[in-house]
Amino acid sequence: MRTIFSTEHIRQQDKFHFWMDFVRRTIITNDALPACRENFDAELGAMTVGETNIALVKTSTLSVTHTRDHARRLDNDDVFVFMPLKGQKFIEQDGRCTILAESQLALIDPRFPHRSRFSEGCEALSVHIERQKLENRLGTIHPLTARPIKPDTAEGSVAAAYLTMISSQAGNLGQAAQGMIEAHLLDLIALSLTQATGRSLPRPSRTRSMIRMKVRAEIQARLSDPSTDAEAIASAAGVSVKYANAILADDDTSIRRLLQDGRLARCRQALEDPAQLHRSVSEIAYGWGFSDMTHFGRRFKAAYGLLPSECRRRAPGRARSGR
Hints:
- Keywords: DNA-binding, Transcription, Transcription regulation.
- This is HTH araC/xylS-type domain-containing protein.
- It comes from Methylobacterium variabile.
- Mean pLDDT is about 90; it is low at about 320-323.
- A six-stranded antiparallel sheet has the order 1-3-4-11-6-9, sandwiched between helices. The protein has a five-stranded antiparallel sheet with strand order 2-5-10-7-8.
- It has helices at about 15-25, 70, 130-140, 155-170, 175-195, 205-220, 230-235, 240-250, 255-270, 280-285, 295-305, 310-315, 320; strands at about 1-5, 30-35, 40-50, 50-60, 60-65, 80-85, 90-95, 95-100, 105-110, 115-120, 120-130.
- It has a domain at about 1-200: Jelly Rolls (Sandwich).
- Helix 5 packs antiparallel against helix 6 and helix 6 (about 205-220) crosses helix 7.
- Strand 3 and strand 4 form a beta hairpin.
- By secondary structure, it is α+β, with helices and mostly antiparallel strands.
- It is about 45% helix and about 20% strand.
- The two termini are about 25 Å apart.
């Protein structure tokens, strides 16, 4: 998993301040308090599977509070699934408290206040899922928050093992596979969450599930082809555009939107990658299927709130490289 922030080379007195500034800018606005500022260290890794982001947080003992005011200022509608790989993580939401041990999962809804605490040396995965994708599988999710999913159940064991396996393969997953892997991961998380409450899981037809995965896989495989359109993707998946979009509507999306969002996400990753500072903004955009720079810049700003050139200037290593 690619490290996107570390306190390793920051002066000790500045480490916590820099860590909180980065977390608030890139993940979520919270208040936090370390057990000892003089010994605080932290690191954040990140990867993307399809459209789902996965983070790996490594930190010293740290208490985190997410208030109603923080919840009101959210700029996205993701929900979080946490799973420690090492150490423990305490979470509390809506009157429910649990201590997650290694390979135990739990859901948190950032629309509502919650508290958490990382144990010393804790390493925890955080899966950031678009709310609509999970609610399409589960219905209302708030009653499922802060309920531990333990690996001693079949559902919990499979979900934990699959998430661990995915996180260990960061950078090795092909684009065509990511859409299918993402769908499997969300299905497993939904299944394991229902086990915690005994809620029955809606079961879409196998045919629709297979078509959904195939359409997403075709999109991921063709992101760099500027001639790709909805008709080509639907045809490759063996269905009509109308039927493919009807199935994708379950996830509140469409072929055209997935194609655009996928290309924009790949461009942003490239613009923020220090290893790709030698590539121009236009080279990156053209490489991911955009043929009109004005259109690309407009869509990028609408998606991320800044121009591609501004995103590039914020890339780690930019100042050092002088590019």
